[in-house]
Amino acid sequence: MTIFNPLPTLGAPLDVLCPMHVVLSSTGHIRHAGPTLAKIRTDALVGKRFLEVFELRRPRNVHTMRQLLDMHGSKLHMRFRDAPHTALQGVVVTLPEGEGAVVNLSFGISILEAVGTYDLTSADFAATDMAIEMLYLVEAKSAAMEASRTLNHRLQAAKVAAEEQAYTDTLTGLKNRRALDHILPRMIEAGKGFTLMQMDLDRFKAVNDTLGHAAGDFVLQQVARILVDEIRDSDDAARLGGDEFVLLFQGTIPTDVLKTIAARIIERIEVPMDFKGQACTISASLGIISGDRYCQQTAEELLIKADQALYFCKENGRGQFAFYDEGKMSNVIKGEGG
Fold first, then answer.
1. Taking the model in full, what pTM does it have?
2. Could you say which architecture CATH assigns to the domain 177-332?
């Protein structure tokens, strides 16, 4: 009796016409795999059970070779069991004499993902496969989209740079008044608690008058570095102009902690700053107001009150800090400067 052997008869033609086919034995073992399928699964497929390599998603009730053969001519939806779990479509055709079956596979709508995942080219598909035409179209579209993305990225980067410049003090790198006018109202609206410190430098004008504006700019930059050191990443430091600064601390902070921060800032600023061999000696006064306590105030009202506490310090010796207390400016708590 002649035993039907499909491989010599089908193998070579199917490799050309259906490069993603598998030939199965009657027991469901893979006897042969098309070249593209062999390429994308570098581990040897021959000898493995088809249903151990592929997970059938639809129909879900196929668990044996017998059930698979009963699906003759039907469309299958499956995916690889091992990563990457690429989705596949297929159709099964039974072979005569009970010799098994041929399952022809394709990527379907997963083709773009597969091309990128497995580095496929037109040589990995049948010449008549419409996927080739689609790949050419996709390649052209991808090139156009990449050019568009590049342009968009450049435009976005230019926009971000322009926005950052608009909200940044160019001398110190801190935020500027425009940025503060955006941040402070949002913090008030959020109602999550914050503290505002307004700071003015003492004896700064003397530095400008005696050593020049270059020395003044140097001092402002050093002060900015100190402020950045003393705040958290979640907090903000801004220069309003001249020698005026504002610090915004997120969340509710205990008074003792605020006193420590304010005193440390003053102490560090009072350390003489060397500019080309000349000592620049300044100090600082700070007015502090709690956004928790005055949560119904507008941004402008909070800044005015912080400014009142600030000038209370200046009028009473400078180099110190004060907490604003509604209607009791004479009783404002004063900190000891350096």
1. 0.53
2. 2-Layer Sandwich (3.30)
Rounded to 10 deg, the angle between the 255-269 and 213-230 helix axes is 150
* Nearest partner of 25 among 99, 90, 95, 93, judged by Cα: 99
Using CB atoms within 10 Å of the CB of residue 221, give its burial: 0 to 12 exposed, 13 to 18 middle, 19+ buried.
Answer: middle
Tens of pLDDT, residue by residue over 218-263, are 999 999 999 999 999 999 999 999 999 999 999 989 999 999 999 9
Q: Return the sign of the alpha-carbon dihedral for residues 143, 145, 146, 152.
A: positive
Active-site choice (233, 243, 274, 325): 243
Task: Provide the residue ranges of all domains of the chain, joining segments of one domain with +.
Answer: 6-129, 130-165, 177-332
256 is catalytic: no
Per the CB < 8 A criterion, the answer to whether 302 and 197 are in contact is no
Q: Are 294 and 302 in contact (CB under 8 A)?
A: yes
CATH topology of domain 6-129: Beta-Lactamase (3.30.450)
